[in-house]
């Protein structure tokens, strides 16, 4: 079985790279056919310089969808072969513009004819296939511009991991895990404060007995995440002590915990969910926004030194 048949669509990038290498190799044969001393990778840059004179490297890079560094290297090669020249711009001396040399201008008509022949041959090639690759590439580029391959893979990975994550209610044997997960992230960024130790050492007394809840995330037999709901008043609970093990971060576990906490807050009849955090924790703030929280200035002064942002999620409007 062919390697790519065995790998399937997971090998798309590698197969496209192989196809690119084949086409580039055969393109070199085309230049030899026309007795043109020219490398295929130069063509996009040379084409723009020939048809749109006066552009600088940044313009060309944007025009052909390549990096600035890649275009700069091609320009250096073209200069070395005396096909283009680099000059300071008339309107902006800080920007160099690229133009054809006499040698490059003399080569351009031959390249134009070669391009016309290649276009005709390529259209014949595409007509031999059931699926028009040129159109398919355009569709693929559009689809990837809407959602990257990485984000698509992440969504599938998160769904798979999510189905394996078990959200559990707190039990006394989980107190060491609850404390460990929170101490771990607090010490990484801040310092552990007295209110932390009260809640983490005695969660039954400071969280559960006043009407709160503690949720834990279990994955592959390990407790890898935790959060707590602290009863503030009849209408409000606080989302606190949210923590995910570094080894399990990036798997969407924090989002699963957050969704479970919101559902639990609704079940408790709460009308408002409140939290305190620090803007230094950018991924956490991003998570809270994704869950629907918004910044508020209506909170009471925080007992924590590290708090510099307060957020809330309105679960149901309080009728006045």
Automatic annotation (TrEMBL):
<keyword id="KW-0012">Acyltransferase</keyword>
<keyword id="KW-0805">Transcription regulation</keyword>
<protein>
    <submittedName>
        <fullName>DNA-binding MarR family transcriptional regulator/predicted GNAT family N-acyltransferase</fullName>
    </submittedName>
</protein>
<keyword id="KW-0238">DNA-binding</keyword>
<dbReference type="InterPro" id="IPR050832">
    <property type="entry name" value="Bact_Acetyltransf"/>
</dbReference>
<dbReference type="Pfam" id="PF00583">
    <property type="entry name" value="Acetyltransf_1"/>
</dbReference>
<keyword id="KW-0808">Transferase</keyword>
<dbReference type="GO" id="GO:0003677">
    <property type="term" value="F:DNA binding"/>
</dbReference>
<dbReference type="GO" id="GO:0016747">
    <property type="term" value="F:acyltransferase activity, transferring groups other than amino-acyl groups"/>
</dbReference>
<dbReference type="InterPro" id="IPR023187">
    <property type="entry name" value="Tscrpt_reg_MarR-type_CS"/>
</dbReference>
<dbReference type="Pfam" id="PF12802">
    <property type="entry name" value="MarR_2"/>
</dbReference>
<dbReference type="InterPro" id="IPR036390">
    <property type="entry name" value="WH_DNA-bd_sf"/>
</dbReference>
<dbReference type="InterPro" id="IPR000835">
    <property type="entry name" value="HTH_MarR-typ"/>
</dbReference>
<feature type="domain" description="N-acetyltransferase">
    <location>
        <begin position="176"/>
        <end position="316"/>
    </location>
</feature>
<dbReference type="InterPro" id="IPR000182">
    <property type="entry name" value="GNAT_dom"/>
</dbReference>
<feature type="domain" description="HTH marR-type">
    <location>
        <begin position="9"/>
        <end position="158"/>
    </location>
</feature>
<dbReference type="InterPro" id="IPR016181">
    <property type="entry name" value="Acyl_CoA_acyltransferase"/>
</dbReference>
<dbReference type="GO" id="GO:0003700">
    <property type="term" value="F:DNA-binding transcription factor activity"/>
</dbReference>
<dbReference type="InterPro" id="IPR036388">
    <property type="entry name" value="WH-like_DNA-bd_sf"/>
</dbReference>
<keyword id="KW-0804">Transcription</keyword>
